[in-house]
Design goal:
12-stranded mixed sheet
């Protein structure tokens, strides 16, 4: 594409942005039911004792030269409440398998040929906190909590029901929420199964406002969920390491690859 075409496209984008900046939302009381829609989604998720879904996530990073990069991963998630989880994630810089069977956490970094095991009983809520403290987060971990609504609404100062929308051809309700540190948006499937289809978190106080995006597909619950093993078959030649040594299984490359991120 020529530089002239790039410039023309940029002008159109800027024009659209200018319109969006002055956007006036519909006068109907969209915002009044944003929390109600989120609560319905949260209650639905918590009521499902067995869940599986596929996901794609993208994590943006900004280089010292203010170039915004996007790192995309995909994987699967299986949950059996109250205390079992199996998550895989494959991307350009990580290939991991995480399992919790109610008494033991196993994290296998396939690309690192290493794994870590930690003994300890607990619920999924306990596990999510433990993973976060170790720098290993399950995708959309706040959506897996047994207190989804309270977790998502923490520090929310503004809630809006923007409009209806379509994600992968599925009709959704588009909601936007603001907190002092981040803004986040969620697209919830309409109908009797209010499934979160898309979830976007914006770090608004970080240079160029990088975003984390999670898109969910093939959501199943109850009897529709296939048989799942919560025991990872780790290769005999994989080395055992401390969980802290597996922090490199993130979606981002090492700073030496792209330059230190902002």
């Amino acid at each position: 594409m020529s530089s002239t075409s790039h410039l023309s496209r940029l002008k159109r984008i800027l024009a659209y942005s200018a319109v969006a900046a002055g956007l006036v939302l519909p006068t109907r009381a969209w915002a009044d039911d944003a929390k109600d829609l989120l609560k319905a989604m949260s209650d639905f998720l918590v009521a499902q004792k067995t869940i599986s879904f596929n996901y794609q996530s993208s994590l943006e990073a900004v280089t010292p030269d203010f170039e915004k990069l996007q790192f995309v991963s995909s994987g699967t998630a299986n949950i059996t409440r109250p205390d079992k989880l199996r998550v895989t994630r494959t991307g350009g810089f990580a290939d991991i398998d995480v399992s919790f069977d109610g008494s033991k956490l196993t994290v296998h970094g396939k690309n690192l040929d290493a794994y870590a095991k930690i003994d300890g009983k607990g619920s999924l809520d306990d596990l999510i906190d433990r993973l976060a403290n170790a720098g290993v987060e399950a995708p959309g971990a706040d959506l897996l909590s047994s207190h989804v609504f309270d977790t998502l609404m923490t520090d929310v100062t503004e809630a809006k029901h923007i409009s209806s929308a379509f994600v992968d051809g599925v009709e959704c309700e588009y909601l936007a929420f603001r907190t002092p540190e981040i803004d986040w948006q969620i697209w919830i499937q309409t109908g009797p199964q209010p499934i979160p289809r898309r979830y976007v978190i914006t770090s608004k106080h970080v240079v160029q406002a990088p975003q984390y995006t999670l898109e969910i597909s093939d959501f199943k619950s109850g009897a529709a969920v296939g048989a799942t093993s919560y025991d990872i078959d780790v290769p005999a030649n994989a080395k055992t390491v401390d969980l802290s040594e597996l922090q490199s299984i993130d979606e981002l490359p090492a700073p030496a690859v792209t330059g230190e991120m902002q």
